[in-house]
Amino acid sequence: GFGLQIHPCDSSSPLLADELADWVQRSRLAGLVLTAPMSERRDLIQALTARGIKLVRIIAATEDPADGACVFVDDREAAYEITEHLIQLGHQRIGFLWGGSSHRSSGERYAGYEAALKDYGMTVDKHLVVQGDYTFDDGFRGARRLLA
């Protein structure tokens, strides 16, 4: 059978391909499932593929990039549904943790968040939109800021 291992890492590291390749070999993994923003890094995908590492990417895309196995996520719709659910629970102040402007998924998620607020007659409170990047530390800091 198969199991799942999660490997926190710095997605912007120039040594990420080496780190992941070493982890795959050391842990004797069958392959990798990459999420954003790593799944959006062409250089990383090419480096891992060149080393013979099997991978599947979870990406926000409207078209199949035809460069390997992918699972497509509609980030806009997902963010809309999450925001809508919070509104329907009665929440009035809903924050958004921005994952970085260079990542397609961030813009898609923000568009869904914004659309849900608009559809329910609410406006975006810029104080509740926290800029960051797709890192654990930024997510932690952003959540603390929103909950303060």
Automatic annotation (TrEMBL):
UniProt source species: Trinickia dabaoshanensis
InterPro entries: Peripla_BP/Lac1_sug-bd_dom (IPR001761), Peripla_BP_I (IPR028082)
SUPFAM superfamilies: Periplasmic binding protein-like I
Gene Ontology terms for molecular function: DNA-binding transcription factor activity; transcription cis-regulatory region binding
The name this protein goes by in its record: LacI family transcriptional regulator
Highest taxon, organism lineage: Bacteria
Ranges of residues in domain Periplasmic binding protein/LacI sugar binding: 20-147
